[in-house]
């Protein structure tokens, strides 16, 4: 029997790991924000490693399936469902969402599943050749009948999923933004930018974040302005990015700093934050930078930056993948300044977001009958 009273509900959050990423930080913040309002919370990972493991807190149980092998993950999630009997499961990202649905099909205990999408589905679709992409999308669309709700971190993420997987999912797909706490720390006088100007970028060193574009842009910026760029993050492209820095002769201008636990203090001490991503859902680091009051420049990539900056009202948006456009925006903002983005960042305050999560939990628990369009006895889909 599932709980119907939110205060008696047990929640589980599924996420691959707790490394230094936006989705990982947000998952912990949501779990901690909900903990006083429910009976228990588990966070289940593929492996219990990462910089944010220590942030989980003693009143939240951290468990691991100790594998990334899809078959083992599904079977162990099934065992977790049967053993721990969560009432609601929040599956973070497309991969974990699909695995949670398959575990639901195999298990005896069937909780409400909520898929939490952090990136546009189109970015997954584009990884495959057209025939394979069509098969994968059909499979995802069939499994998407299982979750009680599907939430996306931005309107663009929701729209992308519905466009690819089917308009019928629009009735159970909704936007729920990530919570970003206000910044309380260093207060800097920004009336004048002292040269060299200090630029900061943050993110995993991978293709999505497109730091190669930013480095090319800085190579153009240095012809007009005296700047220094610090890039914070770890990832598989570190060596190739360092090679790019060396080839362009930017060793004294661009530094790959690695991970920093006090990243918002470092943002506050900088003169500008730059986001160079090729795609995003709702980039946490952009909102975090905005909470410190520094001007921001971002690529107008799919989909989050446009929504966060409200079309450019709170920071500069530039054409994606055009180094000269990004460089010119950086120079313009250094010389003319930018709007204080803190009023917009306040819209993402945790109290607002946690209240919406509590409403979601209350609504889901109030629903009776089947939590999906899949027939539980046969595993068949009545709508297919």
Automatic annotation (TrEMBL):
Domain Glycosyltransferase subfamily 4-like N-terminal: 21-181
Annotated Gene3D superfamilies: Glycogen Phosphorylase B (3.40.50.2000)
Species of provenance: Rhizorhabdus wittichii
Protein name: Glycosyltransferase
A Pfam family annotated for this UniProt entry: Glyco_transf_4
Transmembrane parts of this sequence: none
GO molecular function, one term: glycosyltransferase activity
InterPro entries named among the record's database cross-references: Glyco_trans_4-like_N
